[in-house]
Amino acid sequence: MEKVVIIRYAEIHLKGKNRGYFEHVFSINLEKSLKGIRHELHRLSGRWLVANFEEELAEEIAERISRVFGVQSYSIGFQVGSSMDEIFAAVKCVAPASGTFKVVTHRGYKKYPLTSMEVSAAIGGRLLSENPALKVDVHEPEHTVYVDIRENDTALVFGSYEPGVGGMPVGTGGKGLLMISGGIDSPVAGYMMAKRGLTVELLHFHSYPYTNEGAKEKVVTLAKILSQYSLVVKLTTVSVTHIQEEIHAKCAAELNVTLLRRFMFRIAERFAKREGMQCLITGESLGQVASQTIEGMTSSNAVVTLPVLRPLVGFDKDEIIERAKKIGTFETSIMPFEDCCTVFLPEHPATRPKLSFIEGEEGKLEVEALVEEALKTAEKIFF
Amino acid sequence: MIYLDNAATTSPDEEALARATQFYCESYFNPSASYGGGFAVHTALEEARKKILSTLADPSKFELIFTSSGTEADNHAIFSGARRGNAVTTAGEHAAVERSFNELKARGVEPRYAPLHKDGSVNIEKLLSLVDEKTALVSAVHVSNETGAVNDIFTIAREVKRKNPRTLFHADGVQAFGKLQVKLAPEIDLYSVSAHKIGGIKGVGALFKRKSIALSPLIHGGGQESALRSGTENVLGILDFAYAAERRFAVLKENGARVAALKAQFCKNLNENFTILSPENGSPYVLTLSVEGARGEVLQRMLWDMGVCVGTGSACSSKNRHSRVLKACGYGEKVLDGVLRVSFSPESTMEECVKAAQIMNTVAGKFLHLTN
Questions:
Q1: Which among A82, B82, B129, B329 is least surrounded, fewest beta carbons within 10 Å?
Q2: Do B301 and A209 lie within an 8 Å CB cutoff?
């Protein structure tokens, strides 16, 4: 009897001819998530099996698997020989001590001498006779014991299906650049796009010395949390200090934020293209702050050609917070290191700036030179 | 780097540390052990205690309890000294005292706070008006860590005792110890000090305690420090503290004069963008300034990048961005936003101070030019 973790995948089966590719990437991602733990990963039909690991690491393996995109569900269980005695020995390990239960048998090996119903009945009967505190309830049982009889004279026995994170394997959806601020929203946006299979790299803008080192450290921590899901994270920081100073000195105060965001988009796009990324991702949510209006988004989009993905655009703050808590980034995001110093914040930022006004003000700046200068401050932090 | 944040901490006195380290490596025994090695460490500890005690107090009237920090010494004095009635302090205290007083409320003791003068010193008259027959403890900072203002703790203690002889008097002496020449008068019951502000290492403090008063312990255990502060003593830190204090007190007067000259020259070299908030008769070691219209925290980082390390009294955008103490002095938001604290040490040189002042002028000018 060997302890195993059984993994079932989500949407990959929908992928027709590309299924092999999706399964291949999924398998690589599972391996990455288990880095540092001795194990074997076996592919069965429609599922994966983690085996040959130290038994006490089962929970740790399950925990890591639970964060891999593409995992629909997983179970900690046992792999045993397919004789009824061996199956029953494993069933006793996963069966409850009391309460109602039922046994559900799936027979992949159709030549097995007993039918699924007969296996369930026999196992259930033996359990009942050995433990009078148990009762059978086939309609609404408190516990279910699963027996899966396989073709190679083995059976899998487990006591529950734990839900995975779902989604598509990271890497099957292309590469995108997340503009990460250190706030609550952008890590959630990155998570959501990684969940759809995108490899997400991170770009953080800072205004040192107007912002402090703590803000950068916070982004590094957020990146580490995200890397548990996206498996690889590359974080780059870029200074926009000089750009902010120039905007402040030469342009209308109410456009400070709008203009800065246009610069950020330009820098992000140039960086993304250079690094072979196909889209930009932001944590913007319509109407959340002065710059996140449709006009603000239009003005930012106007300076780039790559698609800008805004997975949170229709989300309320509460919904975003709920997700951030679930992902585990919320506690870090609310740490009191502000990502933007108030020195350059206008009292009344423009919420519906006209493009002609924006372009007129921007004309006062050496846009190209400032973008290139900012890119030279890029500092790569890899995980 | 020109280091001018000595009120935050000081560079270690290397000679003191080398002596303490050598002893510690050779005699690592537990001072409570009854064999020879343990006794030798115990003896060295007691010598260190005597050395530090005699810097400020008459050893026949005072004793010294070693703690983990100045903060612990303050906590010990306050929670042990104020158990009922009310307790009075100033609006200019270090967080170690201020937060402890806030906590007193939950323990059934009414905290009372005396206002400050504009220069950062406490309004003694108003403080005394808060003292009554139910006042268990009065605590006043000796030298303000935020402004350098010196409170006349001797007058305050004397007047407090005149109003209520049963009231205990405590002073937080962390920024005064090794810098001001004082002897603890009998009206002072408790006095907190810290090692790392005078070249000692972090993690050591002490509480001077008048022998005739009784305290109860905050930390219970093996009965060290006359059962007032259990836990195996920080032998390395305590010996280092004693050596550093010995060296500092031997030249205390000369240091004071030298640092006062540094401070005066430093002020002379600053341009009109700086407003000096520290009082003229304050500690020469602390100089609090403001660049109106600037942000202290940003200036601090710009200075760091230019090789000058100073403190600040504000944070860029945190919720409590202004110094509580400077606010209590009555300064407005613009002044509070731009606060910097320059604090000197006897190791600071005139050349460093002149250069630092020039760099500060440049940085303040640059900030104001870029942002206004």
A1: B129
A2: yes
Please tell me the distance in Å from A340's CA to the nearest CA on chain B.
Answer: 8
**CB of B199 closer than 8 Å to CB of B12:** yes
Of B25, B316, B329, B353, which one is the catalytic site residue?
B316
B295 chain-A contacts, CB cut-off 8 A: 210, 341, 343
Compute the distance between CA of residue B209 and CA of residue B213 in angstroms, rounded to an integer.
8
Cβ <8 Å between A209 and B319: no
Full pLDDT tens readout for chain B, 372 residues = 999 999 999 999 999 999 999 999 999 999 999 999 999 999 999 999 999 999 999 999 999 999 999 999 999 999 999 999 999 999 999 999 999 999 999 999 999 999 999 999 999 999 999 999 999 999 999 999 999 999 999 999 999 999 999 999 999 999 999 999 999 999 999 999 999 999 999 999 999 999 999 999 999 999 999 999 999 999 999 999 999 999 999 999 999 999 999 999 999 999 999 999 999 999 999 999 999 999 999 999 999 999 999 998 655 545 567 899 999 999 999 999 999 999 999 999 999 999 999 999 999 999 998 887
ipTM summary value: 0.77
Provide the sign of the torsion angle of the four alpha carbons A182, A183, A186, A191, taken in this order: positive
Give me the long-range contacts of A41-47 (CB less than 8 A, separation at least 24).
A44/A150, A45/A108, A46/A8, A46/A9, A46/A13, A47/A6, A47/A7, A47/A8, A47/A9
Give the domain CATH number at A91. Answer: 3.30.2130.30
Indicate yes or no: CB of A209 within 8 angstroms of CB of B370: no
Closest listed residue to residue A152, CA positions, set A91, A103, A108, A106? A108
On whether any CB of chain A is under 8 Å from the CB of B301, the answer is: yes
| For chain B, domain boundaries | 2-10+252-371, 14-249
How does A215-234 read in b/e, with b if 16+ C-beta sit within 10 Å?
bbebbbbbbebbbbbbbebb
> Do A285 and A152 fall into the same domain?
no
Give the integer Cα–Cα distance in Å for A243 and A361: 13
Peptide bond into A209 cis (omega under 30): yes
User: Does B2-10+252-371 carry CATH code 3.40.47.10?
Assistant: no
CB of B305 less than 8 A from some CB of A:
yes
- Active-site annotation holds for B309: no
The residues that bridge with A158 in the sheet, in sequence order, are A77, A146
A335 near B CB under 8 A:
no
User: C-alpha distances in angstroms, B260 versus A241, B178, B270, B343, B360?
Assistant: 38, 15, 16, 11, 19
Give me the CATH code for the B14-249 domain, please. 3.40.640.10
Judging contacts by C-beta atoms under 8 Å, the chain A residues touching residue B304 are 209
